[in-house]
Amino acid sequence: MDYFLNFNILFYIVAYLAGSIPFGLLLAKIFAGVNIKEQGSHSIGATNVLRVVKETNPSLAKKLSVATVILDALKGTIVILIAMALDASQSTLWAIGVLAVLGHCYSIFLSLEGGKGVATGLGVFLVLLPIPTLIGALVWIICAKVLKVSSLSSLLGLTATVIAALFLNNGLGVNSNAPMYLIAFIIYYKHIPNIVRLIRGEEKKLV
Q: What are the TM regions of this chain, as residue ranges (predicted)?
């Protein structure tokens, strides 16, 4: 039992459980009466919320999509901020971030299915790598406006964040860039179907 009372272990469990909360699914069900796991791309992320809800209620779709991004991002920030307030080590903070992203992508509440991890990863990076993340977010927004392809814009924004962190020599405080690479890898991995469709020219644009 003492194992589960360990400071770090408690935060790791909470981070994974918080990350597992499928806000997109819940918001779409509660406010639009639709199950996004059964429609569109079947993802629980903001893009699928927008696509599915837009078919019946365009104005509500935008609001729910934005709310999904914010809530999914907060899953990656709130637990980290609480841990920071309690003087957790930098390595603990990064572990919390990785587990929050894993929770979103492989939710315990959805039989280990989930979203793509972009917003949750953004929330983690925003706290732990603020300047590179702001650069990546700007790239994400510009690409989304110009390209109108959600997956490509997200991946370009993520890539810009990682490159900016390396270029600015923004140390992670743990003598390794591994946690940042691991989060990026999880997000890239979850986007493999999108990458395949992009290569084939079959990826849908946001209208």
A: 9-32, 64-86, 93-112, 118-142, 149-168, 180-199
Q: Beta-carbon neighbour count of residue 160 at 10 Å?
A: 21
One-character DSSP codes across 113-145: B----HHHHHHHHHHHSHHHHHHHHHHHHHHHH
How far is the C-alpha of 94 from the C-alpha of 84, rounded, in Å? 11
Residues 87, 41 contacting (CB under 8 angstroms): no
What are the residue ranges of helices labelled H in the chain? 7-20, 23-27, 46-54, 58-75, 78-85, 90-105, 118-128, 130-147, 150-167, 178-190, 192-200
- Per domain, the residue ranges of the chain are 2-200
Q: Is 107 helix (H, G, I), strand (E, B) or coil?
A: strand
Helix (H) or strand (E) holding 86: none
- Confidence (pTM): 0.90
Name the more confident of 41 and 21: 21
Kindly tell me if the per-residue pLDDT of 10 is higher than 80. Answer: yes
